[in-house]
Amino acid sequence: MVGQIAIPTGNVLPGQAVGTATARASNGMIAARLERLPMTQFQRNIFLIIATAWFFDSIDLGSLTFLLGSIKTEFGLTTAQAGLLSSMSFVGMFLGAGISGMLADRFGRKVVFQVSMIFWGLGSVWCAYAPDATTLGYARLLLGFGMGMEFPVALAIVSEFLPTANRGRYLAIMEGFWPLGFIAAGCLSYVLLSYFDWRAVFLAQAVPALFLFAIRFLVPESPRWLADRGRYEEADRVMGCIEAKVSERLNGRSLPEPQPLPEQARGERRFSFLELWSPGYASRTVMIWLTWFFALLGFYGLTTWLGALLQEAGYSVTKSVVYTILISLAGVPGFITSAILVERWGRKPTAVLMLLGSAVAAYLYGHSPSFEWLIAFGLMMQFFLFGMWSVLYAYTPELYPTRARATGAGCASAVGRVGSLIGPYIIGIILPSLGHGGVFALGAGSFVIAALSVAVLGIETKGQSLEAISR
């Protein structure tokens, strides 16, 4: 089947022999061959595998929202100590995201993704058997490291396999697995806490790490990355297999001929982190770092404490879990709306809308006059928050070239994890003096700053191939 797929000779680079692997697998040609593929179940299966791993990650991270109150009680922690414990995950995520992006740009997307799942699986088991708060903090650090490793690599894989017409929508939908995972974490916590303690929840969350075998055997290495590294024969072989599988799902119909796309020069290659600060990319880096930092400072500063704040308001552990799950349900229409708008309006206006909406909703939530309004504004807040996540994950990997895509996404995520680290700890400190209103006003201000960063410095990437955006 692979041999039946014609590669037009008009797209061969000057000086290259027609029919050679180099001609068929230059970075521009590989991109063209990927872009011309119709969307079939083959690409959807790759997306579903990565999104499922994303879903399991969300369960691991979101569980602390539902377990923090119980952990705080068992170990006799102050609010500041509980906030510090919450922040340990984000220290690990900061390290994992920053390192894995550079590793993925150097050694490949697939291997780094698999290693990330091993780390967070081991971290979950360690959490389950932690004898004290200090040990639990170190376990959360390891768990966060694995989760941080996964984020930028998952974004790179999905963005590099899907054609332009589908890329933004599917990246936004993938983020939708995050609120689903958050809801699943709440359901899992609700069920297990009815019979066991919080340790059983962490132990159950270690099992999905076995999903790495699906990654190993069912997800190929990114041909865009292989071509960019000069591994032309391998890129051509992987690309041929992809073309054959897509053609098979089209009942053997001929594939469209690839249209030439810009080549990304390999002669100017530099260390991937320095690439983020080269001409044309520095302003993008400043913009996306500011956006991630303030968006995550607000998001995790608020959501990590949702369950604990409800408990402090007088609700039982199980009732606070139920109310938090209820509020999180609004995240589902939130990410669906974002997935639609990123392709209709564009990434930039959708990001501004979701961030400003999050700011307004967070402020109103913190100043709710009654329990009914608390739930209403909580639903509104989660709608915009998860819509915000969707557009950020769709937007970030599009800003950088293949040679630095995972590094760019990883460093933005790492900077965001600094905000994630600071947010819960700040909340633990200011809550006793400023109360719930001050906490949510702080979150609202963070979202406004993030929205301004996108509005002033952001570029629009809708409808453009990755190569056209980053030359």
Automatic annotation (TrEMBL):
<feature type="transmembrane region" description="Helical">
    <location>
        <begin position="111"/>
        <end position="131"/>
    </location>
</feature>
<feature type="transmembrane region" description="Helical">
    <location>
        <begin position="407"/>
        <end position="431"/>
    </location>
</feature>
<dbReference type="Pfam" id="PF00083">
    <property type="entry name" value="Sugar_tr"/>
</dbReference>
<feature type="domain" description="Major facilitator superfamily (MFS) profile">
    <location>
        <begin position="46"/>
        <end position="462"/>
    </location>
</feature>
<feature type="transmembrane region" description="Helical">
    <location>
        <begin position="286"/>
        <end position="308"/>
    </location>
</feature>
<feature type="transmembrane region" description="Helical">
    <location>
        <begin position="373"/>
        <end position="395"/>
    </location>
</feature>
<dbReference type="InterPro" id="IPR005829">
    <property type="entry name" value="Sugar_transporter_CS"/>
</dbReference>
<dbReference type="InterPro" id="IPR020846">
    <property type="entry name" value="MFS_dom"/>
</dbReference>
<feature type="transmembrane region" description="Helical">
    <location>
        <begin position="320"/>
        <end position="342"/>
    </location>
</feature>
<feature type="transmembrane region" description="Helical">
    <location>
        <begin position="137"/>
        <end position="158"/>
    </location>
</feature>
<dbReference type="InterPro" id="IPR005828">
    <property type="entry name" value="MFS_sugar_transport-like"/>
</dbReference>
<feature type="transmembrane region" description="Helical">
    <location>
        <begin position="83"/>
        <end position="104"/>
    </location>
</feature>
<feature type="transmembrane region" description="Helical">
    <location>
        <begin position="198"/>
        <end position="219"/>
    </location>
</feature>
<feature type="transmembrane region" description="Helical">
    <location>
        <begin position="170"/>
        <end position="192"/>
    </location>
</feature>
<feature type="transmembrane region" description="Helical">
    <location>
        <begin position="349"/>
        <end position="367"/>
    </location>
</feature>
<keyword id="KW-0472">Membrane</keyword>
<feature type="transmembrane region" description="Helical">
    <location>
        <begin position="46"/>
        <end position="71"/>
    </location>
</feature>
<protein>
    <submittedName>
        <fullName>MFS transporter</fullName>
    </submittedName>
</protein>
<dbReference type="InterPro" id="IPR036259">
    <property type="entry name" value="MFS_trans_sf"/>
</dbReference>
<feature type="transmembrane region" description="Helical">
    <location>
        <begin position="437"/>
        <end position="459"/>
    </location>
</feature>
<keyword id="KW-1133">Transmembrane helix</keyword>
<dbReference type="GO" id="GO:0046943">
    <property type="term" value="F:carboxylic acid transmembrane transporter activity"/>
</dbReference>
<dbReference type="GO" id="GO:0005886">
    <property type="term" value="C:plasma membrane"/>
</dbReference>
<keyword id="KW-0812">Transmembrane</keyword>
